[in-house]
Structure formats: C-alpha cells, structure tokens
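Input record (one chain):
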Amino acid sequence: MGDCSLQPSSPPPRSAPAGAAGNALILIAAVITVAAMHWLAPVVTPLTLALFLMVMADGIAQGLKARAPALGDAALGVALVLCVSGFALVVFLMAESGSGLVGV
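The corresponding structure, as predicted from the sequence alone:
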C-alpha cells in the first residue's frame, strides 16, 4: 500500500539571503539596534542599574544570612550598603584612571 503516516509535511527550510543582500540586512539590523539602544538609554540605564543591584544585593544577603544567622532581616540592608558602596568605589576608580588616560 502507500505511506499512511499522519505526519504533516514541513516546508523546506528557508535560507538567509546570500551575498550583498544578506550583508545589507545585517548592517541595517545593527544600525537599527544601536539607534534603538541610544534612543532608549535614558529609560534602560536606571532599569539596568536597579536590576544589577537587586541581583547582587540578594545574593550577598543570602550569603550573609547563611554565614551569620544573627543578622536576620538586617542582612538585606547590609548587603545593599555593601553593593552601593562597592559600585561607588568602582565608578570612582574608573573616573580616576580615565583622567590619567586623557592627561588631565
């Protein structure tokens, strides 16, 4: 008899445009992505910083709670102070080394 399989036939895979057209599409996508990132920078920058501090503070707080159970809920406050002061120290050190590169 014939092939009685109930599997749907899938369309052939699409290939990316070759040559100059593919390169042009990649360049256009890169330019649009950079423009969108530049346009959204005032919104994305604080959100990224907040997400970074949240992840760092939570990890440090959990570590503090595991190593010093007496801290209890104060571990989150201690972790937040550590993260913010560490971030400020990194910004200060980057500003100091950057001024040396410029020659100020």
